[in-house]
Design goal:
Keywords: 2Fe-2S, Iron, Iron-sulfur, Metal-binding, Oxidoreductase. With 182 residues, the protein is α+β, with helices and mostly antiparallel strands. It has five helices and five strands. 35% of the residues are buried.
């Protein structure tokens, strides 16, 4: 540099992109993403999967919940670039072809939604929660952590507490999940 100052500046407005392969609902998507792009934005704006909703955009409401390798994640807080070769399931991928997921059927039967805005996140979160309980993971309210979790209403409410419903359909949501769990 011959004693001269380096005047090269990094410009934050210039995107840094990465080529990755997303597996979403059993479909492969080779895609180039900005390293700052959230999974929620990728799903909604680039893959036209609009089930996951942008509620608070701060990870507080759960409307954007999807499953990554079977685990619940808030897609508004997850950078797409971190999900190369991981299996992503959105509400659109819960059904088995034309056969709805048992949770989807139970939500309809129990009228577990009103406006429906939170429903995709509630369904993905419930599917992940049922898998966690089946694997023996306790929650804060699990009475005996050495025993298999018993999904009573208190347990379901605790495990679903990261998903908010503005309409207050909680009683029916818990009943629908309870039916599938039992």
């Amino acid at each position: 540099m011959n004693g001269e100052a380096d005047t090269t500046r990094w410009d934050a407005s210039t995107p840094v992109t990465v080529d990755i392969r997303l597996s979403v609902n059993r479909d492969e998507h080779p895609i180039t993403v900005d390293t700052r792009e959230t999974l929620l934005d990728t799903l909604r704006e680039r893959l036209d999967l609009t089930g996951a909703k942008k509620g608070c955009d701060h990870g507080q409401c759960g409307a954007c919940t999807v499953l990554v390798d079977g685990r619940r994640v808030k897609s508004c807080l997850t950078l797409t670039v971190t999900l190369d070769d991981r299996e992503i399931t959105t509400v659109e991928g819960l059904a088995d072809g034309d056969t709805p997921h048992p949770l989807q059927t139970a939500f309809v039967e129990h009228d577990a939604f009103q406006c429906g805005y939170c429903t995709p996140g509630q369904l993905c979160s419930a599917a992940g929660m049922l898998a966690e309980a089946a694997a023996g993971w306790p929650s804060v309210v699990t009475r005996d952590v050495s025993a298999a979790p018993r999904l009573d209403d208190d347990e379901i409410r605790e495990r679903m507490s990261g998903n908010l419903c503005r309409c207050g359909a909680y009683v029916n949501i818990v009943a629908a999940i309870g039916e599938v769990a039992r």
